């Protein structure tokens, strides 16, 4: 037996032992004091020395949307969106019009799902397949090191049909349906602002399908007994067009800027917005899709719900590339055209991988 085969076999054994379908939360409930080896990240993944060092006076921008549509104030919001999207790839929005109760109930629904009776939770557990709803300890079987979290995925985009509401876990069904409705509406507003920030007609991004389809990925990051050894979610960029993210009061989300990690401090009632790789491509690098991660934490649970916009089934055979109106003699296209179907297949086959699918299309 080669040593590589042995490592693979050992790993399979470790996975089987761990994978009781009780998730990372199951480990915490069992009272472990040392995290299993599969969660221990290589030292270079964990480096935090750069965290906000020397740059404490700058923060991920917070944009107040209350004055949208109001002349000069509107123009100043568009300008803030342009700067945040170009420099950070991340911003938070406040006064977006979504009732606090909708956000609180979404968080509470995720908590209830994860903290419900294990037997009920197990019914949702699965690693593969085209099911709309999946509950996993993320990427446990494909990647070298596992992340310290449990994830409930609602695949709502790119499928022939929407899931029947009865497929959603009953404890979070109503809150999730309500949340999705509001996220779609907010996305329409944001895509208008982002279009204007690119100097395009407000409906431009909407007209090419950016608001269509979204998948909801809910994360539950249990408290970790050795947070300095693990990550809640490894460093990655989001492959889609735009991500809207709701987070509870436990921090941990960090974004990379100039090789330093910056905390995205939770803001009560705020929502995090981040540019995905596809929007970086569409904007021909005017907007940046930025690497981010979530640290593990002694306290918890951290709960978040990410809403990924990446087009829907009707767009799978469409080509995407840098928007023609942005291309000029002095601004050449930096990406080849891509077929959405092929691009997404690359993203799905290597989620959170080191080589994002956009790299295949760089000119
Ligand atoms: O939980 C978070 O704050 C971030 C989640 C995230 O980055 C993702 O799902 O892509
Ligand atoms: Fe992400």
UniProtKB/TrEMBL annotation:
<dbReference type="InterPro" id="IPR026992">
    <property type="entry name" value="DIOX_N"/>
</dbReference>
<dbReference type="InterPro" id="IPR027443">
    <property type="entry name" value="IPNS-like_sf"/>
</dbReference>
<feature type="domain" description="Fe2OG dioxygenase">
    <location>
        <begin position="212"/>
        <end position="311"/>
    </location>
</feature>
<comment type="similarity">
    <text>Belongs to the iron/ascorbate-dependent oxidoreductase family.</text>
</comment>
<dbReference type="InterPro" id="IPR005123">
    <property type="entry name" value="Oxoglu/Fe-dep_dioxygenase_dom"/>
</dbReference>
<dbReference type="Pfam" id="PF03171">
    <property type="entry name" value="2OG-FeII_Oxy"/>
</dbReference>
<keyword id="KW-0560">Oxidoreductase</keyword>
<dbReference type="GO" id="GO:0051213">
    <property type="term" value="F:dioxygenase activity"/>
</dbReference>
<protein>
    <submittedName>
        <fullName>1-aminocyclopropane-1-carboxylate oxidase-like protein 1</fullName>
    </submittedName>
</protein>
<keyword id="KW-0408">Iron</keyword>
<dbReference type="GO" id="GO:0046872">
    <property type="term" value="F:metal ion binding"/>
</dbReference>
<dbReference type="InterPro" id="IPR044861">
    <property type="entry name" value="IPNS-like_FE2OG_OXY"/>
</dbReference>
<dbReference type="Pfam" id="PF14226">
    <property type="entry name" value="DIOX_N"/>
</dbReference>
<keyword id="KW-0479">Metal-binding</keyword>
